[in-house]
Amino acid sequence: MGARLQAGKPPATPPIGKKPSANNFGGWGWSMIGFSLLMYYNFAAWTADGLNVIVESFVDLHGWDYATLLAFSTPAGWLGVLGAFLIAEMINRKGARLVAVCGLIALGATMIWFGRVTTPLEYAIGLTLINFLATGTCFNVPGTLLTTWFPRKKGLALGWATMGMSLCTATLVPLMVILFDRFGIQDAYAVVGGTLMVFGVISYFWVRNTPEELGCSPDNEPMSKEALAENLREFNEHKSPFTLSVLLRDRDMWLISVGYGVLWLVDIGVVSQLIPRLISVGYDKQTAIMMFTTAALVCAVFSYFWGWADVKFGTRRTSIAYSFFFAATHACLLVRGSDAFTYFTLLMVGASIAGIKELATSQVGSVYGRYDFAAANRVISTIACLFRVMCFAVIAASLKWTGDFDAAYIFFIFLDFVGAVLIYFITTECKGRVDPQDVAHGAH
Question: What's the farthest any 2 CA atoms get from each other in the chain?
Answer without folding.
Answer: 70
